[in-house]
Design brief:
Phosphogluconate dehydratase; 13% strand; iron-sulfur; 38% helix; 4 iron, 4 sulfur cluster binding; Rossmann fold; DiOHA_6PGluconate_deHydtase_CS; single chain; alpha/beta; metal ion binding
Length: 604
């Protein structure tokens, strides 16, 4: 067996040691839940009768404890393309469960919002905290004690982390996530970007832009670019929380249905044996595998927030130094849009997660001795599923079928994983280098400070940014307005860069996996509110941002001598005032930007 890479081993050991007390308390909790917590055999007759009253033909089996009962937590809605395929899943899953002497019930639904719909709009201020809302909703769903295993139906940005965080509080139960798959490929990505930039310059109108967008996002399934949703799917594969390599099979295909059936059968097996509980599968090694996969594939920077939060829910503590050190050891072996020209369907057809898992395992960059739920060993994830003659089988993927998409570790696209920690007198931030040309990894320029995205776009249209400039977008952190993504800025900043200017973005907001080609220091911590360093910057200050040296500094300025800029008024409307409690108590992005987890830690 290949020896584990020394840096991967060192970081893992450090995480284990750092997490020793919190992980021990977590494991004690789930052991106690397994032995003494609420479950079906312990329910009083009235409680149990309420639990199976709506179960139709499964009433008798649930009442008689005839087999394991699978709780389905679903994020279905038909406004969100990625979750629309889940409409018929519960009906199908109940049939699949009966095939193996089990039952299934929909425990509850959880909210699932689409950042693509809310980009640049007030609703985006609810986006990050929807993760905590989903986690709490999941806990409510599972609180009835009716279930022996859990099936999580969710794919997108905050939905998978929220489902997982909530279910980890019921970590004594075996759990699988069941994906729906990506939509088929639409308008080529380069063409989509070209039209967006033409619109930003006023060279095409809204009708042309809408036509391009509609051809890109055209049907059911996950968006095909490699943003947070598809990064979620990759991480769940490497944590062993899917049936092997189920992530990137298109909706509505026989293979997709066969994989769902296999997942239900697997959950029935695990529920019957009370085997491989979620809290033991999500351990320090599994978290490191997810992080390594994120770096190797150029995944979403949103997971610099979500992965610490997921880990924290399991008593595991990781930080951005772990990301940075692993990034230096893990090469970039995938080029998926926006880090390349082709999308996740091309990625899957080129070998996908089977190739990635094989390549990383062969070089000792992931732990292969992890406990997995979707199969008995991580070895199973080195093969890709096929469905022929009514038979679901897996075949090995020994090599990449497209070297422009996937390469071996020995011949990577870049020697490191492209998620750097930058820090200095402006705090700590994440810089995703994998989509940025290396000559732009260091930018030194005067700043222009903003606290509203529209202000940036107005300045761009007025020609005020047509120069070397670092745009500082502040008061966008979790405590200020919920830490929205700032993709609305990407086309304008891309135009400035294409004109030959040195351009960068520094923000305490988010940019996710679609951040693209413009250098950006994101998730700045501490955030500007109430008086973080970003709040003390002034127009014209010269900032140096460098992924080469890990630097984020304002030059020749003593920030301590300045008063912080006045914060904008708290956000109101579109339900944002309902989330004031979450904003007021949220902790730093590096810890997961969560009020819920901060208060949970205080109680336990």
């Amino acid at each position: 067996m290949t020896n584990l890479n020394s840096i991967v081993g060192r970081v893992t050991d450090r995480i284990i040691e750092r997490s020793r007390s919190t992980r021990s308390r977590y494991l004690d909790l789930i052991r106690n839940q397994k032995e003494q917590g609420i479950n079906r055999p312990r329910l009083a007759c009235g409680n149990l009768a309420h639990g199976f009253a709506g179960a139709g033909e499964d009433q008798g089996a649930i009442r008689a404890m005839a087999g394991p009962n699978i709780g389905i937590v679903t994020a279905y809605n038909d406004m969100l393309s990625a979750h629309a395929p889940y409409y018929r899943y519960p009906e199908q899953m109940k049939i699949f469960a009966r095939e193996v002497g089990a039952t299934a019930q929909v425990a509850s639904g959880v909210p699932a919002m689409c950042d693509g719909v809310t980009q640049g709009l007030p609703g985006m201020d609810l986006s990050l905290f929807s993760r905590d809302t989903i986690a709490m909703s999941t806990a409510v769903a599972l609180s009835h004690g009716m279930f022996d295993a859990v099936a999580l139906l969710g794919i997108c940005d905050k939905i998978v982390p929220g489902l997982l965080i909530g279910t980890l509080r019921f970590g004594h139960l075996p759990t699988l996530l069941i994906p729906g798959g990506p939509m088929t490929s639409g308008l080529p990505n380069k063409e989509k970007v070209r039209v967006r930039q033409l619109y930003a310059e006023g060279k095409v109108g809204k009708a042309e832009l809408l036509e391009a967008e509609a051809k890109s996002y055209h049907g059911q399934g996950t968006c095909t670019f490699y943003g947070t949703a598809n990064s979620n799917q990759m991480m769940m594969e490497l944590m062993g929380l899917h049936v092997p390599n189920a992530a990137f099979v298109n909706p509505g295909t026989p293979l997709r249905q066969a994989l769902t059936r296999a997942a239900v059968h697997r959950l029935a097996e695990l529920g019957r044996d009370k085997a491989r509980p979620l809290g033991e599968v999500v351990d320090e090694k599994g978290i490191v595998n997810a992080l390594v996969g994120l770096l190797a594939t150029g995944g979403s920077t949103n997971h610099a927030i979500h992965l610490p939060a997921i880990a924290r829910a399991a008593g595991i503590i990781i930080d951005w130094q772990d990301f940075d050190e692993l990034s230096a050891a893990v090469p970039l072996i995938a080029r998926v849009y926006p880090n390349g020209a082709k999308d996740v369907n091309d990625f899957h057809h080129a070998g996908g997660m089977a190739f990635v898992t094989s390549a990383l395992a062969a070089e000792g960059l992931i732990h292969v001795d992890t406990l997995t739920a979707g199969a008995d060993e991580l070895e199973a994830w080195k093969s890709t599923p096929t469905y022929e003659g009514d038979q679901l089988t897996w075949r090995p993927v020994p090599e990449s079928l497209d070297p422009d998409m996937l390469r071996p570790v020995s011949d990577p696209f870049l020697p490191d994983g492209g998620m750097r920690l930058v820090q200095g007198n402006l705090g700590r931030a994440t810089f995703k280098t994998s989509a940025v040309d290396q000559e732009r990894w260091t930018i030194e320029a005067p700043v222009r400070c903003f606290s509203d995205q529209q202000e940036v776009l107005d300045a761009f249209k007025a020609g005020e940014l047509d120069r070397d400039v670092i745009v500082v977008m502040r008061f966008q952190g979790p405590r200020a307005n919920g830490m929205p993504e700032l993709h609305k800025l990407t086309p304008a900043l891309g135009v400035l860069q294409d004109r030959g200017h040195k351009v960068a973005l520094v923000t305490d907001g988010r940019m996710s996996g679609a951040s693209g080609k413009v250098p950006a220091a994101i998730h700045c911590s501490p955030e500007a509110l109430p008086d973080g360093p970003l709040a003390r910057l002034q127009d014209g200050d010269v900032v140096r941002l460098s992924a080469h040296s890990g630097e984020l500094n304002v030059l020749n300025v003593d920030l301590a001598t300045r008063q912080p800029a006045q914060r904008p008024a708290p956000p109101l409307g579109t339900g944002r005032e309902l989330f004031a409690l979450m904003r007021n108590f949220a902790d730093d992005a590096e810890r997961g930007a969560s009020a819920m987890l901060a208060q949970m830690d205080a109680e336990i």
